[in-house]
Amino acid sequence: MAELSGNDAFIDTDKLIFGIGQVQQITGVSGRQLRYWEEQGYIQSLNQKKGAAREYSLHTLFFIFHVTRFLDDGFTLQSAVDKAKQFDRQLPVLRQFLREQLHGVDFQDDRSILDFGYVDSSHTQRIYGIVKNGETSFEIKNVE
DNA sequence: TTTCTGACA
DNA sequence: TGTCAGAA
């Protein structure tokens, strides 16, 4: 039985690795830049062996993608990296919150309803997240 | 063929 | 940063 590290995901994302060529195709960042970014300590590749072909984790691939987004927004490389790091920090928290508080999703005619369960321990109100016409909102309903 | 390092414009 | 050379 394969062992899943990190989280309880069905796919062991730690085993999803990409070569520098793949990262170039996916993110649009040149190999020259990737090597430079690594040299500057902005990103990290898996095998730090000298002369060996670089490999990047899925996490790093995401990180690089986010950096390019902030770069496109006009940030300097340094601040784009900082922004990407901040974004990275949010992911575990967002995952945990959704995993524990999102009880289900209902699809109705014109809208989707996310069930976030009871508002508090009195169990008198339930809170829902609404997605309708590309807009989102909350709704609280009494459940006597 | 692809990637690596180092170097130059 | 792009690109080129010479070596894995």
UniProtKB/TrEMBL annotation:
Domain of life where this protein originates: Bacteria
Family matches, as Gene3D superfamilies: 1.10.1660.10
Pfam families in UniProt: MerR_1
Sequence ranges assigned to domain HTH merR-type in this UniProt record: 20-80
Biological process per Gene Ontology, one example term: regulation of DNA-templated transcription
MF-aspect GO terms: DNA binding
CDD domains the record matches: HTH_GlnR-like
Name recorded for this polypeptide: Regulatory protein MerR
Phylogenetic placement of the source organism: Bacteria, Bacillati, Bacillota, Bacilli, Lactobacillales
